[in-house]
Amino acid sequence: xxxxxxxxxxxxxxxxxxxxxxxxxxxxxxxxxxxxxxxxxxxxxxxxxxxxxxxxxxxxxxxxxxxxxxxxxxxxxxxxxxxxxxxxxxxxxxxxxxxxxxxxxxxxxxxxxxxxxxxxxxxxxxxxxxxxxxxxxxxxxxxxxxxxxxxxxxxxxxxxxxxxxxxxxxxxxxxxxxxxxxxxxxxxxxxxxxxxxxxxxxxxxxxxxxxxxxxxxxxxxxxxxxxxxxxxxxxxxxxxxxxxxxxxxxxxxxxxxxxxxxxxxxxxxxxxxxxxxxxxxxxxxxxxxxxxxxxxxxxxxxxxxxxxxxxxxxxxxxxxxxxxxxxxxxxxxxxxxxxxxxxxxxxxxxxxxxxxxxxxxxxxxxxxxxxxxxxxxxxxxxxxxxxxxxxxxxxxxxxxxxxxxxxxxxxxxxxxxxxxxxxxxxxxxxxxxxxxxxxxxxxxxx
Length: 446
Ligand SMILES: Cc1ncc(COP(=O)(O)O)c(C=O)c1O
What we know:
Helix content is 40%, strand content 16%. It has three domains: 2-84, Arc Repressor Mutant, subunit A (Orthogonal Bundle); 105-114 and 347-445, Aspartate Aminotransferase, domain 1 (Alpha-Beta Complex), CATH 3.90.1150; 117-345, Aspartate Aminotransferase, domain 2 (3-Layer(aba) Sandwich). Strand 9 (213-214) and strand 10 (217-218) form a beta hairpin. Residues 97-101 have low confidence and may be disordered. Helix 1 (21-34) crosses helix 3, helix 2 packs across helix 3 and helix 6 packs across helix 11. It has 14 helices and 19 strands. The strands form six sheets. The protein has a seven-stranded mixed sheet with strand order 6-14-13-12-11-7-8, sandwiched between helices. By secondary structure, the protein is of the alpha/beta class. Pyridoxal-5'-phosphate binds at residues 110, 175-177, 198, 232, 237, 265, 267, 294, 296, 301, 306.
């Protein structure tokens, strides 16, 4: 038997189990107090009210209260009713134990410095967006995404990334991963992928075939005749090179000649430190390149906000499929991001983070006893290691409490190991504290 009672707000009491009703009620209340679901000082309903809520005799409730008063769990005072005793100390939440287990200095590459999330600016945008939101913002959202966000993105992407975008071609998604799930249904595959890349993304695609990469990005001349290729042209992930200008043109030519799509993963294109960012590949041929952007690196992966700029032919199929799968991002977060971008906060935040990350990368380059490869860009770098050293260095780093992976972790299973090194996020919140122990490990084992 389970029941709901009203303790100022609805409160669930589990009255199942063995024994009479009174002892089950006593046990259920005692458990609620012990686990802090009923906090010290909480006023309990009168025995009459609770009896009505639970559909039991008032005497049953009164007897349960008396027993808990006698045990010290409750106090009963004339005038202030029956309350949970103050001296009952709630147990330490399980969360605290979990944090201890994760005390590694995490330098894995999945997040930006989330401690620098622009809370104040975001809050201002949320307040403004909510204040002016039309009523339809609270109805089920258009599968293509809120038009306010698509308009703001079209302007931003054209200006900052050289994307040929208009709001009618933009589809708001919950991140790059969501975009890949949709494209995997619409494009038959197999997909050509860079031989080093994010395994999680490869696994979202039905079949993949690796193409070698070097310091200038993917070796386009080795791209097979397949329906699509997933590339990271601005900043190869994880090696860190930009796609060479000639290869950019060749990649587009490959797509035209093979009647294929290029899926451009522009995950951190805003973060270039040595010069202005190179524009998106999509600008070269918007009918062949599907542009994939995300707020996961620039703001936070917890927002689950990303965007696709889709060739004309793909707009309707993508929107229809997305509508079926109902994976919307919150309309209020979309409106907030729209305001955040159009008010200039997004640009300011990116500028602020750019200077932070640049300093950190400079620190890494200055301190590292091994060569740092890749562009002065993004939120991660590769610390190069001689062939054969990588497993020992990864082991030693982990033993020293550093959460890192080697390049081998990112290698396509069908690709030969060609590069060796540690992939390190200098964007991670732990980076300032992790730098010294990291360099010690590299000096000893690298
Ligand atoms: C290579 C790459 N692409 C894209 C993303 C962003 O993915 P999502 O937008 O699904 O969070 C990441 C994030 O870690 C990434 O490493």
